[in-house]
Amino acid sequence: MTDAQLPHSFDDEDRGTWSLLMESCRTRLRQHGCAQARAGFEALELSEHIESMHAVDKRLHDLSGWHMQPVEGLVSDQHFYGLLRNKHFPTAPTMRKRSELEFAEFPDLFHDVVGHLPILVDRAYGDFLTGFAGIALRHLDSEPVMKALARFYWFTTETGLVEEDGGTKILGGAILTSSAEAANAMGDPARRTALTVSEVFATDYDIFDLQQKYFVASSYEALLSVLDELEEAAQALRASHV
Ligand SMILES: [Fe+2]
C-alpha cells in the first residue's frame, strides 16, 4: 500500500488555504451539489480544518472500498485508468497556493479530496467509475477513443451537471471546488446542454479556462447506466479509424 505517501502534516499557508476554500465550498456543495455528493461529503466528515490524509483515506475506505492514491503531476492513461479500475483515486498530494483560491489551473489536494472523494462514497458511482476505467483500458491503443473517453470523463466527473428534483445540480469536482467555475456553470443556461455520448465525444475542452459548455445528465441514474452505450460508441469510433 502507498499509504505512507499520503500527506499528514501541513504548514500555516496550507491550513489557511484549506479553511478558506472549505468555507465557500461547503455552502456550494450543500446548496448545489447532487444528492450523492452531499451525502458523501457529510459521511466523510470533511471539515474546515485540514487533517492527516491517512484519516481521510481510512474513512473513505471504510465507507466505499476506495483508497486515495497520491500521484504527482500527469500520469499515463494506463496508470490513471489502472488506478481507477482498482478503486484507487489519483490524488494530488499538495495544496494549491493562496493566490489560486478562485481558480487553480492544476488539480490540488483540496480539489481531489473535496471535489471527488464524496461521490465515491456512493457505491453505484464507484462501480460506474471502475466500469468506465475498464472500457478505457480496453482501448489504450486507440488514440481517438482515448481522446473521446477523456472528454467523457471531463464532462461528467469534472464538469458534469445533473437534473435532480426539477433543478440542475453539480456533480463534477471541478465545479464543486471552484466558485468561479460554479458561477459560470450555473449562471447562464445557454452554456448548458443535455448530455449525450455522441455530443460529448465530439466536444473539445480547455482545462486552463472556465468552460464554454456544460453537459447535464437527465438524471443520476441515467448517467450511471450509460456504460454499455459508451462501450458501443468506443468500438464504433475505433472501427472508423482503422
Ligand atoms: Fe479532478
Describe the overall structure.
By secondary structure, this protein is an alpha/beta fold. It has a single domain, classed as Aromatic amino acid hydroxylase (Phenylalanine Hydroxylase, Orthogonal Bundle), CATH 1.10.800. The protein has a 4-stranded mixed sheet with strand order 4-3-6-5. Strands 1-2 form a two-stranded parallel sheet. A hairpin with a 2-residue loop joins strand 3 and strand 4. Helix 2 packs across helix 5. The radius of gyration is 17 Å and the shape is globular. 40% of the residues are buried. The mean pLDDT is 94. It binds fe (ii) ion. Its cofactor is Fe(2+). Keywords: Iron, Metal-binding, Monooxygenase, Oxidoreductase, Plasmid.
Question: Brief description of this entry?
Answer:
The protein has 242 residues and is an alpha/beta fold. The protein contains 12 helices and 6 strands.
Order of helices and strands: HHHEHEHHHEEHHEHEHH
* CATH topology group: Phenylalanine Hydroxylase
| Strand content range | 5-15%
Summing up helix and strand content along with how strands pair, one would put the structural category as alpha/beta
How many domains?
1
CATH architecture label name: Orthogonal Bundle
Provide mean pLDDT, rounded: 94
Strand order of the largest sheet: 4-3-6-5
What is the tally of beta strands? Answer: 6
Helix content: 40-55%
CATH class term: Mainly Alpha
Largest beta-sheet details? 4 strands, mixed
Unreliable residue runs: none
Distance between the termini: 40 Å
